[in-house]
Design brief:
Layout: H1 3-25, H2 27-33, H3 56-63, H4 70-79, E1 84-89, E2 92-97, H5 100-108, E3 113-115, H6 119-125, H7 135-150, H8 152-173, E4 179-180, H9 181-198, H10 203-220, H11 231-258, H12 268-274, H13 285-316, H14 318-333, H15 344-347, H16 351-364, E5 369-374, E6 378-380, E7 383-385, E8 390-394, H17 395-399, H18 439-456, E9 457-461, E10 468-469, E11 475-476, E12 481-486
Parallel strand pairs: 2-8
Antiparallel strand pairs: 1-2, 3-5, 4-12, 5-8, 6-7, 9-12, 10-11
Helix pairs in contact: 6-11, 7-8, 8-9, 8-18, 9-13, 10-11, 11-13, 13-16, 13-18, 14-18
Protein name: Ent-kaurenoic acid oxidase
GO molecular function, one term: iron ion binding
Family: Belongs to the cytochrome P450 family.
Length: about 500
């Protein structure tokens, strides 16, 4: 065959491949955009990626690399600093919002937006949990659970228990040698939330449940591939095991009530079983179990991770550590001699420690996004979000925006001195009617832990240069392998 003929064949093959790639890349455009008619021309800029996979591959690749922010950075570099981008993620045509104004609007406008979590996530957390129920059901259940979790009386009551378990755990850790600091903190915060909801402190039950939750969380941010060996498949099995355990606990508690067997104290499980609406309708077992799955998960993961990162950051910045420690010493110094332990009033006077916690929440951004769905066609920032499309509120971009926070990846508690971020610029617990219901409890746990740690203990990391991983949540690869030591001048 002549050289010219070979070149023509190669050019032909190359042309076919180019056309084929264009056709494949255009599949999502044809499936989801052309159906919108004239509205497609007012969609936000963006790229809907490959068929079925969409942008998930680039998202997962970025968050499994050393630079998770490269995912959104790629959209910005290609389409400009618009703060809103069309994508195809978690099986749905979606819009990512990254500006404070857009994030606030999506989170607070209940007339235009409702929860839009992926079906795969709802299958793991539960269709009767807060992420799956209607606005009216959410309001009713939030009223029920708010006071027992975040109310002043409840927080005052929990303070003593949290302090006891924190001090006993810290003392125990000093005798254990090398520990995974994050793992032990998650066990600690899990024990606290178990006490609040189930009055249970069974080590065997807690260890088993905490292990299942770890598996569950790895599946929440994974691709929904229900095939053995994949994270989502393992997470579904974990969900099944959790449901079976909680079903047994619910049945036992209902049987106790039938024969009037008193419990140690009235906990959240009792409240969920007893509550009824104005028509006498009570929660079903499925309702209660899904609420437990959600609350016990959210109630320990964020607190454990935040306490770990706050400790690490303070350890890396001795000047901040000394300032935080001095504040705690002053609180103890001013305490009446007859007072034993912390009070909620003292915790609310920890001004500098509160800044340390807020700065940790900002830098780490435990939840990188939440999901909403447009209830109707919505105009946002000059673009159209079609009815039924998902909206991903990208907290990470807001918290690390250099236009809002100078040197945003730098841990600097003093940035909060006389600084109130504009609406939508600080969203560690979300916003609007679906603001995280356990936010005050989480900050209480972290404050009590840091109070005692700063006064009496030191962190010695064994791998201070351990790289971070970002899914399902930001953490050191080694789970912060460390030794906990008592301070030479410890008051313990």
């Amino acid at each position: 065959m002549e050289l010219g003929s070979i070149c023509n064949v190669l050019l032909g093959i190359f042309g076919v491949l180019v056309v084929l790639r264009w056709v494949v890349k255009s599949a999502n455009w044809w499936l989801y955009e052309t159906q919108l008619g004239e509205k497609q021309y007012s969609l936000p800029p963006g790229d809907m990626g490959w068929p079925f996979i969409g942008n998930m591959w680039s998202f997962l690749s970025a968050f499994k690399s050393k630079d998770p922010d490269s995912f959104v950075a790629s959209l910005v570099s290609r389409f400009g600093q618009t703060g809103i981008y069309k994508v195809f993620m978690f099986g749905n045509p979606s819009v990512i919002v990254t500006s404070p104004e857009a994030c606030r609007r999506v989170l607070t406008d209940d007339d235009c937006f409702k929860p839009g979590w992926p079906k795969s996530t709802v299958a793991l957390i539960g269709k009767k949990s807060f992420i799956g129920i209607s606005f009216e059901e959410h309001k009713r259940l939030r009223r029920l659970t708010a006071a027992p979790v975040n109310g002043y009386e409840a927080l005052s009551m929990y303070t003593k228990y949290i302090e006891e378990i924190v001090t006993s755990s810290l003392d125990k850790w000093t005798t254990m040698g090398e520990i995974e600091f994050l793992t032990e903190l998650r066990k600690l915060t899990f024990r606290i939330i178990m006490y609040i909801f189930l009055s249970s402190e069974s080590e065997q039950v807690m260890t088993a449940l905490e292990r299942e939750y770890t598996t569950l969380n790895y599946g929440v941010r994974a691709m929904a591939i229900n095939i053995p060996g994949f994270a989502y498949h393992k997470a579904l099995k974990a969900r099944k095991n959790l449901v079976a355990t909680f079903q047994s606990i619910v049945e036992d508690r209902r049987n106790q009530k039938k024969v009037s067997v008193p419990t140690k104290k009235k906990d959240m499980m009792d409240a969920l079983i007893d509550v009824e609406d104005e028509n006498g309708r009570k929660l079903t077992d499925e309702d209660i179990i899904d609420i437990l799955v959600m609350y016990l998960n959210a109630g320990h993961e964020s607190s454990g991770h935040t306490a770990m990162w706050a400790t690490i950051f303070l350890n890396q910045h001795p000047e901040y550590l000394q300032k935080a420690k001095k504040e705690q010493e002053e609180i103890v110094r001013k305490r009446p001699l007859e007072q034993k332990g912390l009070t909620l009033k003292e915790i609310r006077e920890m001004e500098y420690l509160s800044k340390v916690i807020d700065e940790t929440l900002r830098v780490i951004t435990f939840s990188l996004t939440v999901f909403r769905e447009a209830k109707k066609d919505v105009n946002l920032a000059g673009y159209t979000i079609p009815k039924g499309w998902r909206v991903l509120v990208w907290f990470r971009s807001v918290h690390l925006d250099p236009e809002i926070y100078e040197n945003p990846k730098e841990f600097k508690p003093s940035r909060w001195d006389n600084f109130t971020p504009k609406a939508g610029a600080f969203l560690p617990f979300g916003a609007g009617s679906r603001l995280c219901p356990g936010n005050d409890l989480a900050k209480l746990e972290i404050s009590i832990f840091l109070h005692h740690f700063l006064l009496n203990y030191q962190l010695e990391r064994l791998n201070p240069g351990s790289p971070a991983m970002y899914l399902p949540h930001t953490r050191p690869v080694d789970n912060c392998l460390a030794r906990i030591k008592k301070c030479p001048s410890s008051s313990v």
